[in-house]
Structure formats: structure tokens, C-alpha cells
Amino acid sequence: MRERVLISALLSVVLAGVQVQAMTPQANSLYQQACSAEYKEDYKTAVEKLTEALAISPDDVMIYTKLAGVYSEMGEYDKALQAYTKVSELKPTDGYIYISVGSIYENQGKYKEALTAYNKVMGMCPEYIYNYLNIGNVQYQLGDYKSAIENYNKFLSTYSQHREARENLAASYLSDGNYQSAVNEYANIYSKNPSAFKDFSKYGLALFEVKSYEKAAEFLEKAVDADPDNSSAHINLALSYQELGKNNLALAQYDVVFRQQPALHSLRFDYGNLLAEMDKEEAAIENYKIYIQNYPQDARAYQNIGIVYKRLLKTDEAIANYEKALKLQKDKRDVELVKDLAECYHLNKDYGNALKYYDEVLAVKSDDYDVKYNKAVILHSMNKYNDAIAMYNELLKIKENSAVEANLTSAYIAQGDEYLKSHNYSLAAEMFEKAIERNTNDSYAYFGLAQSYRACDLNDKATEYFEKAISMSPERAEYSQEFAEFISATSKPEVKISDTSSEVKEVVLTMDYGQEDSKELISKGDENYKNKNYDIAVKNYQDALRVNPADEVTLLKLGNIYKIKNDNKNAINFYKKSIVVNPNYSDGWFNLGLVYASDKNNNKAKECFHRVISLNPNYGYAYYALGLAYEQDGNEKEALNNYKIFLVHNKDEATGKAVHEKVKQLEKTN
């Protein structure tokens, strides 16, 4: 929020009248060469020339000033400060050097030191009005908003149209709690140039604080459009909508807020109900507590907070709140509360009492869907999965219910796991398949299905579902470990080796694979690869994988061979395996993207190249490949952007020349 003021040139001019005459012709020549080098941004040469000049004129203020400025442009702030210190020793009455000193400290985040330097400028050069802006900026960073406001206003008394100072002043008013003044400043800034205005969130907050809700909503809508991740803007927009009675819009914004900040505690009973339905238990509890503080005699709140505590397995708190609710209802026994009490026993895993109270409710309300559902959940909890599955399916015949759907899916997975443990693989596969058909997000369903398929020797399907499980939950190390073992078990060399014909220069092949370590096998594979004995190289690499199945580099080499042989299916298979055993293997992702690109699958190719860049932002060829993919899609803007980034990283002269031509062509059309 500060304006950078380059003053090295200014200081050179100020000091020129004092020092130029003292500079020898030889030193002056070196100084001019340094200035020319600085203009060309050849800072190293500029420093060398200035150092040579100082050897001739060791006490020349102008040379030291220029040297300090060059060091500052290079980002070598400590050296710049040393040079400015020498300038201050040679010319102690010149306060302007402290502007640069303050700017350096500000760049380093040393705001107290920056303030000290700027105050020296104020004492020695009070006529330098821009120093008020500098001082205001560092005072803002130090949290001294009142002083910052004072100095911004002093600066604006001379430069009243200075936009950045106006923005900084508005932000200071807002931070200091002077909301009406902040509103006035933001309104003035916005009216002067609406298209350049960026502080929608701050302006909206200021408007909200002065209770101008309609106007606040207008600017907060702009804020969330510009930055969907701005939680503060979403919160204030929700509150503004609430004040305006736009409840649907408010609820939508609350939904965004609590997805971004689920621990926020500022809602009421109705939103607590919504959060409970959305499984936002902690936030729901806090909102119910706020509601209870205002309506302590409302039994519904105690009942609902009990339900949420039950979901969190805090059964003691749930029971206490249910008892409070029943007490408020006095002698009238509410069947719904009895049902909730039964659910507490359920959560306590006291299934006997839970079933007892569920039956009590059903004696009064035999068609109670919720009780039937909870009874099915009890069966589920007692590991009677097939019985639970039958009840869940019965309930779903009555009506759709997302909770029943989720529990049914969970029961399929749990029953599948039971079958898996008992080695009943066909039934296990059936259960996992049913869970997956229901679009489960539980990666274990895919992992369990992979294990079941593996046990049934359906290796292609096993590979597919191992990869799916790992992609869904890459943090689950056991998935990758078992898949690596599976790769090892299925990567056995074939009995027959295809004829390598006259291309074979030297065949390196050993039959006693059990005695060789993986490095030797890889070395032989590399040699055969180099000599284009691809089939034998494949065999060498596969033998190496039997020793070390989680070697992503060897998996990549296998993929490379299949890519050379135009067998993209197998190439993709091995590239995928390389990133399964090491999800952070950027070369694996890159080569996978290249195969997708050759198959004209640009969407998948781009996903791979973006993943490479996320892992290694300096992977230049990923930007080039992205540029090609975007250009093929007709997205010339993104293609141009990626080509330019590639040129920053490129060290290949020939490729760089070709990309330069592409950039020129695209810039003509964009």
C-alpha cells in the first residue's frame, strides 16, 4: 500500500553541484560508464566501474550515492546501507539520503528503522512533502493508525488527487474504527475512477458498519465476484442480506462462509438447524448456544443441540440437553425426545437400551420412518450388515433419503470388508461394486475392490481400482505399498523374448536374476536401451522391478520404451505406475502428459503438465507443452502466456528461437 520513490537519481542531482568538480576526469569517465551500465540494468558492471572510480576518488559523495542506488536496485540492501552510511559521513547535513535508507528498511519489513530514517528526513528536509506519505505508510504497518491518518492528511493537503494516499487514508480510517470517514474516502475514490477501484471488500465493510446495508451488499457482491475466497466479504455480505431480509441469499452466503471457516460462531437457531442438516456440527452447537442465551425456555433448541452432540459422540452433553428439553415439557412425554434418548444409547453403543426405546416409540408411531431408519443403523452398528442393508433398501422404497443412501453405501463397504477378511472374494467384489455404483467417495471401496479383483486374478481391473483408490486418497500409504507389491508380483518377465534382429549390437542378458541386484539389472537395461535392444531392455527393467517394485525411475524407463514403440497404452500404464509409487515424480507426470498429447487428449495432457508445474515451477518444458496444448485447443491467450514463461526458463537455443517466432505470431493476433 506504499508508493516507491526512487531517489538515487534525485540525490545524484542534488549532490552534483557539490562533488562533480572534485571528481577527476578518469573517475568521472568511470562514473559515466557506470551510469550507462545501470541504464542497461547491467548492475554488475556498474558496481565494478563505481568501485574503480572510488579507488581514484575515495571521498566522492556522488560516486557513493550512485553505488548505493545500484546496490538497492540489485536487492543487496545491506551493501546499499553501508554505502549510504559513507555518504552521510561525507555529507552529514544532507537529509535526502535517509529517504532511500527508509525505503530500504521498508523493503526489508523493518518498519521501526524505516520510521526513524523518515523522521530524520523530516527534521533535516521538512520541505519534502512526499515524506509524509512515507511516514504514513510505515505507521500504518506498525498499527499506529491515528498517526498514519494525520500524516496522510498532511500529504493530501498538497497532493489532494493522489489516489494511493487516498486509499491508504481510507484503510487507516477503517482500521482505526472511524467508519464514516472511511466511507467518505472510499466513496470519493470510487466516484473518481470506478474502473480502477479494487477495495470493494473494505468499502463494503465500512458501509456495513454505518448500517448502509443496501449499499454494503452492492459492493460486497463485487468483492466476492472479484475474490471468491474472501471470507470476510462473504461474512459481511451474509450479514447485510440478513439485515435486508434477503434470507435465501443470506443462507447461501452463510453456506460459503462456513465451508471456508467452519469454526465461526455467529449464527442463530435457524441457521443452526441448517448446519446440523449439513453436518456442520461444531458450528451448529455454537449457534444453538447463542439462541439458547436469548430464548432459554425453548425446548426445541435443547433437543436440537442434543442431536448434534450425539453426532459428535458427546453423549453426556446430548443426554443433559435432552433432559433439559423433557423438563421444560414437564409431564408431557414427547415421543420425539424419547426417540432422541434412544439415539443417545445408540451412540453409547448400548444397543439393548437403544432398541428398547426405539420399540417404545414404534409402539406409538408404527410408521415412524426415522425410528425404522435408526433401528437399521443399530443393526449396522452391531455388524449385522446384511440385515441393515435389507432395512436400508426397505426405507429407500418409502422415500429418498441422503443419510440412508450414505449408510447403505457404508454397509455395502463394511460387508465387503467382512467378506474380504473371510476370503470370500466374489461376494466382497459384489459388495464393493454396489458401493461404487452408488458413487461413493470412500476410497476404501475402490481399494477393497482392487484387492478382491487381484485375488480373483483379474489383474487389469485390479490395476484400475488400485490407481483410483490412490488418486482419491494419496495420503493412504498402505494403498501405494500394496500396489507396489502387486506391481512386483505381476511384473514377471515373459518366457519368450522377441527377436531383436540385426539391430542388436551387444546383448547384455543374465538368466540368474535372483543373484543380481537391481542396480546391475538397470545398468544392463540402460545399455540395451542405448543399443535399441528394446525387448531385452524391457526384460532387464522388469527383473529389476522384482527386486525393487517401487522404483519410479525404472517404471518411467519402461514407459519410455513403449512410447518409442508407439505402444501408448503400455506407455501410459507404466507412467501411471511411476507416479503411483511416487506422486511427486514430475518426470513421470510430464511424460504421461506427452503421451496423452500424442493421443490428442489435450484435457488430460494439460492436467499432467499443470501437475508438473505445481511440483516444480522451474520445469521449463512443461510450460512449452502447455503452450502447444492450449494452442491446439484454440486458446491463444493461454498458449502465449505459457510460451513466454517457457522462454524465461529455456536454455535450448534452437527451441527458444522457434518459440520466439510463435510468440511473435500470437502477439499479432491477440
Provide a descriptive summary of the structure in words.
With about 675 residues, the chain is mainly α. Helices cover about 75% and strands about 0% of the residues. The chain has 37 helices and no strands. The protein has helices at about 10-20, 25-40, 45-55, 60-75, 75-90, 95-105, 110-125, 130-140, 145-155, 165-175, 180-190, 200-210, 215-225, 230-245, 245-260, 270-275, 280-295, 300-310, 315-330, 335-345, 350-365, 370-380, 385-400, 400-420, 425-435, 445-455, 460-470, 475-490, 520-530, 535-545, 550-565, 570-580, 585-600, 600-615, 620-635, 635-650, 655-670. Helix 12 runs parallel beside helix 14 (about 230-245). The longest helix has 20 residues, at about 400-420. Residues about 1-20 and about 490-515 have low confidence and may be disordered.
What's the SSE blueprint?
Elements: H1 8-19, H2 25-39, H3 43-56, H4 61-74, H5 77-90, H6 97-107, H7 111-124, H8 130-141, H9 145-156, H10 163-175, H11 179-192, H12 200-209, H13 213-226, H14 231-244, H15 247-260, H16 269-277, H17 281-294, H18 299-311, H19 315-328, H20 335-347, H21 351-364, H22 369-381, H23 385-398, H24 402-421, H25 425-437, H26 443-455, H27 459-472, H28 477-490, H29 518-530, H30 534-547, H31 552-564, H32 568-581, H33 586-598, H34 602-615, H35 620-633, H36 636-649, H37 653-669
Helix pairs in contact: 1-4, 2-3, 3-4, 4-5, 5-6, 6-7, 7-8, 8-9, 9-10, 10-11, 11-12, 12-13, 12-14, 13-14, 14-15, 16-17, 17-18, 18-19, 18-20, 19-20, 20-21, 21-22, 22-23, 23-24, 24-25, 24-26, 25-26, 26-27, 27-28, 29-30, 30-31, 31-32, 31-33, 32-33, 33-34, 34-35, 35-36, 36-37
